[in-house]
Amino acid sequence: MKEKPFSRYQILANVVMILMTLVVVLPFLLLLMSSLTDENILVANGYSFLPEKFSLASYQYIIQSGDKIAKAYLISILVTLIGTVIHVLLAALMSYPLAVRNLPGRKIMMFYVFFTMLFNGGIVPSYIMWSSFGVKDTIWAQLLPVLLLNAWNVMMIRTYFQTSIPESLYEAARIDGASEYKIFSVIVLPLGKPILVTMGTFAGLTYWNDWTNALYYIVRNKNLYNVQNLLNQMVSNIQYLTQSTNSNVSSAAASIPATGIQMAIAFVAILPIMMIFPMFQKYYAKGITLGSVKG
Predict the structure, then answer these.
(1) End-to-end distance of the chain based on CA atoms, in angstroms?
(2) pTM higher than 0.90
(3) Is 247 exposed, middle or buried (0-12, 13-18, 19+ CB in 10 A)?
């Protein structure tokens, strides 16, 4: 059977997708190449995909920080995993009742959730509240404030439960005598996997990239810094050394590849996300489209 030739639309679509892919991939490649470029070449010639001279000095500087990087990565991984699981569980538990059409007080609960998307108490009241709960200088400072539950994710999951899971399944389960907990655990969670994985990915990215909670609440115990806070501290230290008027400090800073280290720090921070993100890619499109378009 003779294959149909590509139409003009298909060719145009492929070209557009290739260009979009390059727009996404090339900045990461440039970031990696810049982190592997000798500092003098980087300052003299700027950023390049094919540097004249390679150097691992930037990564050696990061490795010389000892076990700080390893501890920071461990903190980030633990906070991201625990926070994401709790976030998805709480969001699903709150979304399922809102998806039950005959739930008493459902509209009031929906308004309350939606209201939190528009207004919040602000940084100062939040800081006073969480500080009074004793989260300062503890691991809870990176888990609880702000990030534990998101109203937008609740709305998305609720819409998915309502529009993408047939009402007849709920009714059949209730006729068979299943409790609401049984329906939630046996029917809703397995069928809601696409939207739960999608929202979990968004929550995980938020936890991984967060650095403000540690900045606000972790003051004394710097061992609880996540990788974002540690790398930010390293950048600040480098800037201090390079801008210092002290001659001894300035001479020591001259040997530090300041620009290359910033590129290496950015690459180190984003590398785990680049490795994990494709693993759940198959759920994203289905989770977002089915959770938001219908209804």
Answers:
(1) 42
(2) no
(3) exposed
Among 83, 69, 110, residue whose Cα is nearest residue 226 = 69
Euclidean distance between CA atoms 63 and 56, whole angstroms: 11
Q: Of 114, 88, 123, 94, nearest to 207 (Cα)? A: 88
Alpha carbon 96 to chain centroid distance? 24
| 247 residue type, one letter | S
- Residue length of the chain: 295
Distance CA 30, CA 46 (A): 11
Query: Is pLDDT above 70 for 186?
Result: yes
- Check if the beta carbon of residue 126 is closer than 8 Å to that of residue 116: no
pLDDT at residue 64 in the model: 76
Distance CA 42, CA 35 (A): 9
Six token digits for residue 18: 């290739």
Which neighbouring-strand residues pair with 158?
A: none
**Contact predicate 291/157, CB 8 Å:** yes
CA distance 290 to 191: 12
Vertex 240 angle, CA 238 and 242, to 5°: 70
**Domain regions of the chain by residue span:** 65-292
pLDDT value at position 246? 59
Q: Tokens 């809102």, residue?
A: 98
The topology (CATH level 3) of 65-292 is: MetI-like fold (1.10.3720)
**Separation CA 258–CA 237 (nearest Å):** 10
